[in-house]
Model the fold of this input.
Amino acid sequence: MSAADESREEGGTIFQSGVGRADDLDRLWTPHRMAYIRGENKPADATSGECPFCRVPTLSDVEGLVVHRGETAYAVLNLYPYAPGHLMVCPYRHLADYTETTDAEAAEIAAMTKRAMSVIRGVSGAEGFNIGMNQGHIAGAGIAAHLHQHVVPRWPGDQNFMPIIGRTKTLPELLADTRALLASAWD
Done:
């Protein structure tokens, strides 16, 4: 073993000679995020056959993480949430722009967004929300081909050093558990 490959442990910190000094930072591994980084499940183009938001309604509520189904839209947990309870309200119809919604779709998206806020607030004590749609790739839409409105719950101090400096989000609950909690409180 060369000097560059030698390592020793002191007080739980591993030091590797030739590699660098310990930085005293803890590591949180989030391998599930790699699918998002690689763009898996992201449609290659604007066709509905490539779209995860068109595929989700064909799955069971549990498998698709669907919280509620309406007549023209549905609420689904975000696979890559910014915060616990982060969900999206999506029309069933494959369309990209909010101006393309029918009056019925726009009304149901708005009503579901209001209901999502009430449910999330009721089960988790969220004190605020970020609500929004990113229209087009240039505006930050990860999946620009299918309209979706984000409902992101917020709490005091939730934007601490982890996402800002550590570029890591911590989620205290499994998505399946969050889905069950929100779905049972919806009606």
Q: What stands out?
A: Confidence is low (pLDDT under 50) at residues 1-5. The longest strand covers residues 149-154. The helical segments are 33-38, 52-55, 61-64, 103-124, 161-164, 175-186.
